[in-house]
Amino acid sequence: MLRTLGIETSCDESAVAVLDRDGAVEANLLSSQITVHAPYGGVVPELASREHLKALPYLVEHALEEALEPIEMVAVTVGPGLVGALLVGVRFAAAFAWGKGVPLVAVDHLEGHLVSPLLDLDGRPARPEPERMLALVASGGHSSWYAIESGNRRCLGRTRDDAAGESFDKVAQILGLGYPGGPAIDELARHGDPQAVPLPRPRLKNAPFDFSFSGLKSAAVRWVHDRDLRGAGFSSRRREVRDLAASFESAVVEQLLRPLDELAERHRPQAVAASGGVAANTLLRDRLTDWGARHGVEILLPVRALTTDNGVMIAHAGQLTHQSGRVDDPRRVDARGREVWQPPGMRKQADRLRSREMGED
Ligand code: KG4
Ligand code: ZN
Hints:
The chain is of the alpha/beta class. It has helices at 34-37, 45-66, 83-100, 109-115, 164-175, 182-189, 214-226, 239-257, 260-267, 282-295, 311-323, 347-357, and strands at residues 4-8, 13-19, 25-32, 73-79, 104-108, 132-138, 143-149, 152-158, 271-275, 298-300. The strands form two sheets. A five-stranded mixed β-sheet has the order 3-2-1-4-5, sandwiched between helices. Strands 8-7-6-9-10 form a five-stranded mixed β-sheet, with helices on both faces. The radius of gyration is 20 Å and the shape is globular. It starts with a strand and ends with a helix.
């Protein structure tokens, strides 16, 4: 692998990292925009782009100072994400790679999350990916299960509406807990009763591995309105808020993990991984760890600092992509805001395989 500078600007974190030839982390810098977006209860795309523009030159300069040797390659997130925000990172990376005369590799954001459990921040090399693995990516924009077999990725199930993180953010917003909502709900849930509030756990017909969060989210929001708990937040420390947080968290985690038993039966994985911002969730981590212990299957979780968006995972995904022979032309590389993640030419095949998994053909 090559010593790599990784750049991530798909949403509200400007993140830059340097990994050595073994995938060990030499620099990991992050400029969070949370305080900029917090008053709006969500990410404001135009503000995000502007903040990336301000932060990136500074972050890259510092990352290069921390790196022990000169950079040999640049990896950058090209999508999915906010187009304007992505463009800032993509143009910066392309110009940098062009100027230094080093290869540029375009990275899919989800591919970054998928490799994040292989990395740590203690200077150890990246571990190789297990041959057969099941992997959950649950973030603010995505919630999907993948089968990973000898490096190939196949989507087995996904959310049909909201992403898990998005539903945490919505419920937190209505409670006045600020943005992002996942960490706040996680904290409150530790002191609440997960059985206290009955919430629906919808199942989708003919799609046993897909999930839906919108009904669950709406029921929680209705419950908040009915009890006049809108904006009740932390300060009130009301028992009901903590109970709702615990009940909601428990319902989301149950939905996410429900396909696991059957997927494990079918795929016999050597390891089960979870990544993305929601993989920082305490209950999800505990439940997965218990499941692994009961079934004798290794559980791979990213260190908490690498669950949310970061440059480390993008640098490593780029290293692996480059190793498999791909480079991108810095004059042509572009942001792909909406593109659904699929390896080139694989979409039809993946859909066919998924319907076969579901017994639809
Ligand atoms: O991966 P990420 O940084 O960004 C996307 O790619 O979307 O994920 C951010 C999401 C947010 O929705 C945030 O509320 C959620 O991850 N999140 C959590 C926790 N920490 C972050 N959700 C539940 N529990 C947490 N501890
Ligand atoms: Zn992400």
